[in-house]
């Protein structure tokens, strides 16, 4: 499977490392950290996770991902998953946990993911009645505040992962997402901006990330393609709204670099905003590729951007050196 994924990588970008500039010291090139570490939201490869949990983690690591964000443990205990990540060399960054599960037993959710080693737990999605304009929207804000207090007490950070429906305006004229963040203090709730849905909602994803600089420790990198008249429901493409039409000729998720996002600008903006992690996510495969091939293609595109950044940074940081004979790192 991994071999097939590697063969697919060239479709939307060349991951070949750039040569160090001639006026950059080779040792500086070798040690330079080029951008933020990158993890994978494992929902992207959920079928593979269900079939071979540990083997899929190993393949994700082999692709070059530094960490993972969980979307269920598939019957494994937190202790087992922690041991797998340590053995493989993956950072267990965070976990998407349905709000209903958090509310049902907040203490257990926090304890489980603290045991696993996650720093962040994430509200991934809310049902219609808890969205801006819904009858339980204000109640949801109180629920999130309460969960955030318990998470903080345990040493974890609660994040909220947006879609496009949070960009509906509420009574005071703010977007629902902004109202949520202004209603719950930053020490109890931080952002996990999904830049696909920010852009799909008609907002500038870079500007929106800049708006939450210092409050955006984890950023979702997601690309998509949309053309012509919208057909069907995009949420049917992420395993939700199953009763809606799944075929959608106008919208599809894409590997990074194959859609409409300026991925390099997003990566730079996240670094400038003080983010700690970039998380690749692709809810459904496309372009005739498997989920594993898609996430491999995304990582190769990220590597390409990082190599180019390294080259520029080396040139800027080492203007007096003349002897660079080695390649910049392929990280």
How is this structure best summarized?
The protein is an alpha/beta fold and 331 residues long. It has 13 helices and ten strands.
Largest sheet: 8 strands, parallel, barrel
Write down the CATH topology.
TIM Barrel
Mean pLDDT: 86
CATH class: Alpha Beta
| Number of separate strands | 10
| Basic shape | globular
Which regions are unreliable across 5 or more consecutive residues at pLDDT < 50? 3-10, 14-23, 244-248, 320-331
Physical arrangement of strands within the biggest beta sheet: 1-2-3-4-5-6-7-10
H/E element sequence:
HHEHHEHEHHEHEHEHHEEEHEH
Q: Count of helical segments?
A: 13
Describe the fold and architecture.
- The protein is an alpha/beta fold and 331 residues long.
- It has one domain (22-317): TIM Barrel (Alpha-Beta Barrel).
- Helices cover 40% and strands 13% of the residues.
- It has helices at 2-8, 26-31, 46-51, 53-63, 78-88, 99-104, 106-116, 137-154, 176-183, 195-200, 205-211, 263-272, 291-317; strands at residues 38-41, 67-70, 91-96, 120-123, 157-161, 190-194, 218-221, 223-226, 251-254, 277-280.
- It has an 8-stranded parallel beta barrel, surrounded by 6 helices.
- Helix 4 runs parallel beside helix 5, helix 5 packs parallel to helix 7 and helix 7 (106-116) packs across helix 8 (137-154).
- The chain is globular and about 50 Å long.
């Amino acid at each position: 499977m991994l071999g097939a994924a590697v063969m697919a990588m060239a479709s939307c970008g060349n991951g070949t490392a750039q040569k160090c500039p001639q006026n950059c010291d080779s040792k500086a090139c070798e040690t330079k950290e080029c951008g933020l570490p990158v993890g994978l939201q494992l929902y992207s490869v959920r079928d593979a996770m269900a079939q071979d949990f540990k083997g899929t983690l190993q393949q994700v690591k082999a692709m070059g991902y530094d960490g993972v964000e969980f979307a269920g443990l598939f019957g494994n205990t937190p202790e087992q998953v922690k041991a797998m990540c340590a053995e493989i060399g993956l950072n267990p960054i965070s976990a998407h946990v349905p709000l209903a599960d958090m509310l049902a037993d907040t203490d257990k959710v926090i304890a489980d993911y603290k045991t696993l080693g996650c720093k962040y737990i994430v509200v991934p999605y809310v049902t219609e009645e808890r969205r801006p304009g819904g009858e339980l929207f204000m109640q949801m804000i109180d629920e999130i505040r309460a969960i955030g207090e318990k998470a903080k007490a345990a040493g974890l950070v609660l994040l909220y992962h947006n879609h496009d429906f949070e960009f509906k305006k509420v009574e005071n004229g703010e977007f629902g997402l902004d109202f949520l963040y202004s209603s719950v203090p930053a020490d109890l709730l931080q952002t996990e901006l999904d830049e696909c849905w920010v852009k799909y909602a008609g907002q500038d994803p870079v500007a929106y990330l800049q708006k939450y600089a210092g409050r955006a420790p984890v950023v979702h990198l997601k690309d998509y393609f949309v053309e012509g008249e919208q057909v069907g429901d995009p949420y049917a493409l992420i395993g939700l709204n199953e009763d809606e039409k799944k075929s959608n000729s106008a919208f599809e998720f894409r590997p990074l670099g194959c859609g409409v996002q300026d991925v390099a600008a997003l990566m730079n903006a996240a670094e400038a905003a003080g983010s700690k992690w970039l998380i690749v996510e692709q809810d459904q495969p496309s372009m005739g590729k498997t989920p594993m091939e898609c996430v491999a293609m995304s990582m190769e595109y990220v590597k390409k951007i990082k190599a180019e950044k390294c080259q520029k940074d080396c040139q800027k940081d080492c203007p007096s050196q003349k002897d660079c004979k080695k390649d910049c790192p392929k990280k």
